[in-house]
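Handoff note, outgoing to incoming analyst
You'll be picking up this chain. Sequence as last confirmed:
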Amino acid sequence: MPDAIAQLAEVKAKIAAAERAAEREPGSVTLVAVSKTFDAEAIRPVLEVGHRIFGENRVQEAEGKWPALKAEFTDIELHLIGPLQSNKAKQAVALFDVLETVDRDRIAAEIAREIAKQGKAPRLYVQVNTGSEPQKAGIEPTEAVAFVARCRDVHGLAIEGLMCIPPLEENPGPHFALLEKLAHQAGLSKLSMGMSADYETAIAFGATSVRVGSAIFGAR
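Most recent structure output, in case you need it:
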């Protein structure tokens, strides 16, 4: 799949250029290659050229392709970037290395229970619904800082950063700025923000990781 390999290189070059433009340290932005809807054979060429950090939207889909790939490429880091249902917490904690979509107390409690049971502690991000969109997952911005505190103090979870998906039809810049502000207030340094259409903008606003799918793997 040479197209994906070439497009991966192009995305990495653009990330490096955006880091320079923002006067960021080289390599300070992590690329999460979003492989949702693509099968193992489509992903394999990207693994074979050395990329190891991937994102998936659905637990069930990920369970169908990643255990075998993880057994073969043992240093894979797998991120859950889609909404997490409480009844999937067990599987999510078992399979994923990073859960980016913690957004309510019930999910936080389920994750904490599974971490205790499994002895496995994925890194955790709180998803913020920066556009207050009713159809979208994520904690409301006005509740985000308090929720991060509850995750720590009530549920015993170590939250690494914040994540957002700006409204499709809006300028993403203000949403990225809001997430950075909330992270600062919550005492967090990691920001997962920016996708194929806006990852360079996100880097200018302080993203520490960007989630890029179609710009690497093509249209779904």
